[in-house]
Protein 1
Amino acid sequence: MLKKNIKILGIETSCDETAAAVIEIRNQKILSKSNVISSQVKVHAKYGGIVPEVAARHHAENIIFVLQEALKSEKLDLKSIDAIAVTNGPGLITSLIIGFEAAKTLAFLTNKPLIPVNHLAGHIYANFINEYSKFQIPNPSKIFPAICLIVSGGHTELVLMKDFENFKKIGQTLDDAAGECFDKVAKILKIGYPGGPVVAAEAAKFKMQNSKVEIKFPRPMINSDDFNFSFSGLKTAVLYKTQSLGDSITRQMIPAICQETQQSIIDVLISKTIKAAKKFKIKSIILGGGVVANQELRRQFSLRAHQELADFKFYLPESIFCTDNAAMVAVAGYFKLIKVLPAQWLKKFDWRKIKVDSNLEI
Ligand code: KG4
Ligand code: ZN
């Protein structure tokens, strides 16, 4: 029999956030008990991107404090935790290994199950955490099949999900990820890092100023027959436009470039996802990843999906669970754990058997 209440500690260090969180599953609700994230954004901002060696060093310095904080904030101790979930890929190998080794050490010392979690599955499962216990874990027959769009700094993928734990990738970017495109465009325009939030802020200015500047960029692969993406051409279009403007680039042009870049990314992501939703006759659309923090994407997606599809559920994670966090890792761990009988947990999730894989696929 499954214990009524389960507590899981999640650990995430795949990129530049050192994160630990505790979730509790009670009465079919996933509660976020603590969610600690130590961001390295300021450290990497001066380089305009993540420097792997620097990220790894910061993870190593911060991981124990982050873990301590995650357990402290709810007066939790390791004894009350049923299992530990950790991201084992994909990501930067030098970053992944810090969280992974910390998790292994805890599992060894406490003799708890250690559940390896795919970071991308975590972004999908982020939809089922709610800070204020608003809803219960949905009945699989009501929400699957689902089409999931994962859009982050490293990935842009469409995944068909037929049940919890049943994933099939149907498309992905052939070059840059959507978040990477935001980051690189911000770097070209020299407006800050990470690119998503600063490009979004400039695009919002464009709308507020009611600007008449007209710029047109391509919508790469929007009409291709498959479910793949490509964003490097969009980045190059921004580069050429910026170079052609040279020193004459004005405070008016930057919001216009950002608006058009953002709109191009939004158009492609929505079109491709809706096309997949129609083809696979889905019951829900599930979004996940850092780019889903984009308010325009959220607004336009909901609008168009409701215009073009009948009778489906639309899942968007709460904004704090879009970008990297460990609560999503703990939730993904929960869905793996409950596939196995409690008596088998330690055998199946034995820390000695688990490996990191920076190229792990969903
Ligand atoms: O999921 P995430 O935190 O890390 C990875 O797994 O990569 O995603 C980070 C990405 C970055 O590329 C960042 O620019 C983008 O998410 N991002 C956004 C926004 N906030 C973060 N993109 C667009 N609009 C945003 N508001
Ligand atoms: Zn991520």
Protein 2
Amino acid sequence: MHTLTYTPEQGHDVLLPLAQALGSAQKVVVFTGAGVSAESGIATFRNGANALWSRNDAQRMATPEAFHANPARVWGWYEYRRAVIARAQPNPAHLAIAALTRHFPELRVVTQNVDDLHERAGSNDVIHLHGRLDQARCDKCARAFTHLSGIPALPEEEVPIQPPQCACGGYVRPGVVWFGESLPEDDWDAATHLAGHCDALISVGTSAMVFPAAQLPRLAKSNNATVIQVNPAPTEMDLHCDFNLRGHAGDILPALLAALERNQSAS
Ligand code: BV8
Ligand code: ZN
């Protein structure tokens, strides 16, 4: 396992060995968590002053029990997050991940995030293991609910907002997977197939603590894929990686793309 601390001053040459190691890869999975959206100004779950979980104990809020106990509080929290995401822009990490398909046409993005920044950066067929905030459905009859068009107002902070009601009388809930809920079966099956058959998996911006999603890098490793982690901090994944790139996704992914381009022109 190689650990390399990357800062933009070093330039992308330091990543040339990694670009060479990836040279023959065909099937590549990019597995992302909240850290890939951090440089877009979207709070991560666990770390940093404005971490979602430090303010609201997201692990308790992101549950069916919390929603049924206080629909307005939970709906208000998600509407606030949806407003923040709507005002955010994809960052250089999202853009570089989308551009990696130039080198790996079979590349697939599997994300734990509920924002649409990968799509807005140009990535297609993104697998959202934990759903999407721009989708909503009736909690009772599961009928899809289309959010009112336009960007929701951004309250100063999360304030309770009564969720809309479906014609059946049920409350509308966010289209995300809460703790204790199963992942969408087709998405989970597709993600495990991709991780189990890839040549390389790049894990970007995740603390790798939420299951079953956190199994994916381990699954790739058990199938002899090259596993690369991009994270400024150590995680549970460190021992399961071939390359540990310590740094920010917005610096490292563009540098990796440049190293791949350099490697390609040299060959
Ligand atoms: C299920 C949607 C089963 C909602 C989310 C005990 C052991 C093992 C498992 C469990 C257990 N107890 C309970 C469970 C199961 C539970 C779980 O895993 N709990 C954890 C807390 C232990 N899992 C579930 O409940 C799942 N379902 O198991 O169902 C089942 C089976 C049958 C029948 C019924 C049920 C469902 C889990 C999905 C929960 N929903 N999101 C919402 O968004 O509100 S999870 C949510 O949290 C995210 O989606 C994500 O998955 C997770 C947060 O993790 P990260 O993305 O990694 O974010 P985090 O802040 O932690 O880390 C950010 C990282 O980025 C950091 O490492 C940081 O250093 C780095 N970073 C920061 N800046 C940058 C950066 N990196 C790069 N560049 C930067 N600039
Ligand atoms: Zn309904």
Protein 3
Amino acid sequence: MEFALIDRIRARALARGDVLLGIGDDAALLQPPGAGQALVVAMDTLNAGVHFPDRTAPADVGWKALAVNLSDLAAMGARPAWCTLSLSLPGADPRWVDGFLDGFDALARPLGLALVGGDTTQGPLSVCVTVIGMADAGAALRRDAARAGDVVWVSGTLGDAAAALAQWREGGDIDAVLRARLDRPAPRLLLGAALAGVANACIDVSDGLVADLGHVCRASGVGASVDVDALPASDALRGATGTGARRRLQATGGDDYELCFTAPATATDAVLAAAHATGTPVTAIGRIVAGDRVEAQLADGSPWALPSAGYQHFG
Ligand code: ADP
Ligand code: MG
């Protein structure tokens, strides 16, 4: 049974010159990049009922399983090249697999990303993707490189995906714009690559801004001061929520897959040039400071008590 599914997957896999041997053997053979380049490897799992609602369309699952992985490469400033796919499926449903591949390919194909192997097993619905990319070894964007005085930036808008999830949990209609942010996150690959060598530290916002900026601070041995009223919000989010709920969603809502990065104030023109060149909006939202905590204040300077941080498994 699984061999028929693997054949379907194999028939759609993209060819690439640096894939010496793709799907079909015991393992793939890949041509490593040249001197000065590092391989960049990331893996993320999506479990039904945890990372996406049980009845999510298979194409949306396929898109998102790849998007969350590509977002990790974006946050390193890497260019994606290859990926592997582990599918755990309750049954051998070729229509589900075809739908899944529609979403997966819609993202992979324009990037020239080749699926080179994987595993197909029976079990609760779960999808695990590994992506492999390349970056200039010295210019990769790490979490541990933020410095006191850096400006903190974020791409796009925050809180949209979490607002969609909240509407879904409430059982009412889900705003289509917000829903698209949850189902079809767009990894910021172009911006990430353009920031390599410009930004100091970078992370993608998967767990929520405060939680993820907290990871950067911990790794870098610094604190951060965030201007809550500077956090970028979409019109859809403004239309769907009041001020208090909107601030909470923007500061702590996960699943947006925007980039949060820090750069010296002297690099501001270079940051704006990278944003312009890649067509990606960016907003300055605060500063890296001495210390070890993320603090937030409102536009009038009064402190804003942070709601408890982002999503934690086993929390
Ligand atoms: P093995 O028993 O050696 O692990 P498999 O039957 O699991 O072999 O896989 C056969 C081939 O199909 C391998 O090249 C494997 O990488 C590929 N493959 C299996 N499942 C997938 C999948 N979901 N996506 C892509 N390639 C897959
Ligand atoms: Mg196997």
